[in-house]
Design brief:
Distance between the termini of chain A: 54 Å
Structural class of chain A: mainly alpha
Number of helices of chain A: 10
Radius of gyration of chain A: 23 Å
Strand content of chain A: under 5%
Oligomer: homodimer
Number of strands of chain A: 2
DNA sequence: CCCAATTTGTTCGTATGTATC
DNA sequence: AGATACATACGAACAAATTGG
C-alpha cells in the first residue's frame, strides 16, 4: 500500500514533527501513482494522526506529533465492540492510581498542588440537581486525569487519562450520577482532601493507602449506582 | 468531514461487525459527494480499523471489529515521538502484572496452564548465542502477554500486551539481550516456575508476591543491560 | 483591498482489476 | 467461459484556501 511506502520513506529520512513532506506533485512522481491514489494515502496517514495537511502557499503535508486526545479517540474505537465493565476499569485504576499518587508525593510544585485544589473547589458544595451531580462527577474524574498528567511517565499518564475519560463517558451514557448518593460521595471528597495533604507533606505511603481507599469507595459508589440504574430499568 | 458523517451514520444505524455499508454509488448519493471524496472517506475509516473493503460481487465496505494488533500499532505511533524509558514501562508492569497473576490464580484450565508451560519450555536450556538469547528474551515476554490474554478483562489484556510488545521492540532495537546475563536470567526463570505452581494451586497471594519479585528481577536485568549498552557505546 | 501565485481539495469520465454466479 | 457487480486507478479540469505583494 502507498501509505505504508510513504510512512517508511518518512521514517527513513528521519523527519521530525513539523517537517514538510514533498507536495502532491512530487509524491506522484516519486511513487509513480496518480493524484487520487496519493491523496488517499496521505488521508490514511492523516487518519492515523501522523500527518496534517494545509492548503495554500507554504502549505502541504507535515509530520505531526499525535495529540493525546487523538490517541485516546483511536483507542476508544478499539473498545467500541468490547464492552468494558466497571469492574474491568476499576481493576486497572486500583492497580495504577495508588502507584501514581505514591510516586508524586513530595514532587509537586505549589502551583501544581494549587491546580488540584482548584479542581476540588468545583465540587465543595453538595449538588442539588442531577445536572450538578453529573458535572461534579466529571470534575472529580478530571482530578485524577490531571494528577496523572503530572507524572513524568507518559505511558502511565496516557493510560490513566484514557481510563478516566472512558469512565466519564460511561457515567454520562448510563446516567450513573442519578440519583445522587451523598453519603458515599462525601466520603470520596474526604479522601481527595487527605490525598492532597499527603502529597504536599511528601508522605508517599500515606498517599498510596489513601488512594487505595479512595478507589474502593469510588468503585463501590459506581457499582451501587449501576445496580440502581438496572433496577429502575427492569422494574 | 465526510468520514465523520459516515461513522456517525453507521453508529446511528447500530451496525454491528460484519454488516455491510451501502456501496460507493449509494454513499455518493446519500452524502452528496463525488466518488473520489467518498473513497477517501472510506479509506480513512479503513485506516482507523473500523471498516474493511472487498472487491467483486457481494463485495463492498463492511463494519469491522478492530484487531488488538491494529490497535497496538495505532497506539505505538502515539509513543513514537515520546521516548519511553525502561523505568516508565516497568512502573506500569510492576503495578499491573501482579494484579493479573493474583486474579487468575485457580481460574485457569489445565490446557491454559499447559500452554504457559509450553512457552517456558522454549527457554529451558541456557542460550549460547546472542541470537538464541534474543529469541528467549522475546519468548519470555510473550509468556506475560499470553497470561494477560487469559484474563477476562479486555482492558488489562490490551495494556499488558501493548507494554510487553513495546518492551520486545525496545529489546531488539537496542540489543538489550547482548551480552547475556545468565545469573539474573536464571533467577527470572525460577520465578516463572514458582508462578505457574501458584496459579495451578489457586494461591492468589503467592501468585502476586511471586510476580512482584519477578518484575523486580526483570527490571534489574534490563537496566543492567541498558547500562552495559551505554558503556559499550561511549567507551 | 485586491490580485496573483501556490498548493491542497473536489469532480467527472473512463478504464481496469477482481471475485461471484 | 461469459456476464455481472463491485472496488480500484488514472487524468484532466476546476474549485477553494492561503499567503504575499
Amino acid at each position: 500500500m502507498v501509505a505504508e511506502a510513504i510512512k517508511a520513506w518518512v521514517m527513513e529520512q528521519g523527519l521530525k514533527s513539523g517537517d514538510r513532506l514533498p507536495g502532491e506533485a512530487e509524491l506522484i512522481e516519486r511513487f509513480g501513482m496518480s493524484k487520487g491514489t496519493i491523496r488517499e494515502a496521505t488521508r490514511i496517514l492523516e487518519a492515523q494522526g501522523l500527518v496534517r495537511t494545509r492548503s495554500g502557499p507554504g502549505g502541504g503535508t507535515f509530520v505531526h506529533e499525535m495529540s493525546p486526545d487523538r490517541a485516546r479517540a483511536l483507542l476508544s474505537s478499539y473498545f467500541y465492540f468490547r464492552d468494558l465493565s466497571l469492574a474491568d476499569i476499576y481493576q486497572v485504576r486500583r492497580a495504577l492510581e495508588p502507584e501514581v499518587a505514591a510516586s508524586l508525593a513530595g514532587k509537586l510544585s505549589e502551583s501544581q498542588l494549587q491546580q488540584l485544589e482548584d479542581i476540588m473547589a468545583g465540587y465543595n458544595a453538595p449538588a442539588r440537581t442531577a445536572e450538578e451531580e453529573r458535572e461534579q462527577h466529571i470534575a472529580s474524574l478530571s482530578f485524577h486525569a490531571t494528577l496523572a498528567e503530572m507524572s513524568d511517565n507518559p505511558l502511565l499518564s496516557f493510560i490513566i487519562a484514557f481510563v478516566t475519560r472512558t469512565l466519564s463517558d460511561l457515567t454520562v451514557y448510563r446516567k450513573l450520577y442519578d440519583p445522587p448518593n451523598h453519603a458515599l460521595w462525601a466520603e470520596g471528597k474526604t479522601y481527595q482532601g487527605d490525598l492532597l495533604r499527603a502529597l504536599r507533606a511528601g508522605d508517599s505511603d500515606a498517599a498510596r493507602t489513601t488512594m487505595v481507599a479512595h478507589m474502593q469507595t469510588a468503585q463501590a459508589l459506581m457499582e451501587a449506582q449501576e445496580a440502581e440504574v438496572v433496577l429502575r430499568l427492569t422494574v
